[in-house]
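3.2 Worked example (two chains)
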Amino acid sequence: MRVLVVEDEQHLAEGLRFNLEAEGFEVTVRDNGEDALAAFTGASAPFDLLILDVMLPGIDGFEVIRRLRDERHYLPTLILTARGRPDDVVKGIAAGADDYLAKPFDLGVLIARIKSLLRRRQWSAEKAALPPNQTVINGRRIDFNTLEIEVDGERQPLTVMEANLLRYLLEREGQPVSRAEILDKVWQVQSDTDTRAIDNFIVRLRKYLETDPTHPECLLTVRGVGYRLNRV
């Protein structure tokens, strides 16, 4: 498995390289966002996982994620944030990250998170053997095994966090779900965090689910509260 580590603190980057290589991973290290994006130029899925510091010189980690997703690179992504900055977590998830870890972190926790994210690759490879775990929202088929949404025969990858939020809203179908509840129950972030990034996250989900995202029919805003999901 190939891992790209993007971290501008040299001692941390080299520590990650050493420990990940000891776990059997092939590791590439970059220290800025421009070089991280360049590593994907002209390559087809060159990496299996991205570990990305959000505070980078030049192009920051949030913009790196956004550009990779725009270019249809959907590899699992773990962001590294400064402890005490939950807004970074929300912004990273809204940009398309799959998981996060606050610095300083325990190595064992990092390895566990990496292995959990890499199961996404395994699920995709073995999807034919998995039991059904699908649902339909507004004519779009959601497959929670492979983390994909199918629209008009075309499959669109979902991030882990997108799938987790959809599942959470489905479990509460027809009920208003507050932004604070999403932060706490889905993203495990303290509820006093700025919630504006959630709205941007919902905009992206509407592009997947709605016939006309500007006039949503299934992922509805509940004024002053949050959101409500109807299958339609």
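3.2.1 Second chain
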Amino acid sequence: MKKTLYRVAISGLGNRGWSHLAGFAAHADRFQVSAVCSSSADKLRIVKSRFEDCLTYSDTEKMLAEVRPDVFCFATPPSVRLSYVRLAARYGVKAIAMEKPIAGSLQEAREISRICSEHGIQVVVCHQHKYLPSFVRLKQFVQSGDIGEIVRIHGKTRGWLYNSGTHFVDYLLWINGGVKADWVVGHVHGKGKLEDSHPSPEYALGELHFGNGVTGIIECGYLSPPYLSEDRFWTDNRLTVHGTHGYAWAETDGRWGAFTRHSQGQVLEGQEAAWSPEVKDAIQADYTKDLADWMDDRSKLHPCNFDISEHGYEILYAICASSLDHARIDLPLQSRLHGDIIGRMEQELPDVSTEH
């Protein structure tokens, strides 16, 4: 199949925006960075010095109206996700590359899904740790059958629910082959992060039951067990898969371990490349290449597609709703039955400080 060169417009030049820009630039045979938008004139000058033909804007809608890109990438706060998706539909965008979390509420997430489905827009969400060498190795242990059939999956992250938790619920779904959850039981507490740009409880713990009988556990926040020093806080994350014949785990910071039917009673341990700017750029480039392949051929579904992220978002919502309602939450759920989950946590969680 002939490969198409896709024109890209990017809005937002924070740390994640620069990462996306580098990912597209790494595949100049597949993507042309046609325009960027930022409120920072200094950042726009830097982009212009590196990409002479790239147009620069301070207004996102004007950029989309004039450039009409194939791909619209935005690395912006969750509060503008829905409005940017509406702009993408208005100006004929073919694909969206966005950051997590996908929305500010479950209602918004479902409206984004509706709009993109109606307009045939392909969407990827940057849960890019799936491309880490340590996570690739974990996937190999699982797919080889060396730990047997999956029984339980445990994801833990020191970051909070709607920041790092969106990554790790996505990785639970990914490592389990995309099978959806039937129900969720959850606990949340701590109001200190509800004013964050990614509003979340300070700690969240959820148990999931997947359609194939696998149990999932996810914990996010300050009570999650620390495996690394405090200066590695944002990479102090682990995904562990327990099987009928052993287990395997991987960390964002590159470490991995396994006990398998072929490890002769020994615990295997290893270290892939630790998280660094070079590793970040490499996995971003892999993530971006898969977007080009998916746009060329819709049968090559991107592993970070919107559908899996939407279900992950629903699971996180259900963890919060379960805690507030003191009940198991069956999926798929009706968001209207549980209301504005962030607003409810602000009103209903005890107003007490937590020990860090």
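3.3 Remarks
The two ends are 54 Å apart (CA to CA).
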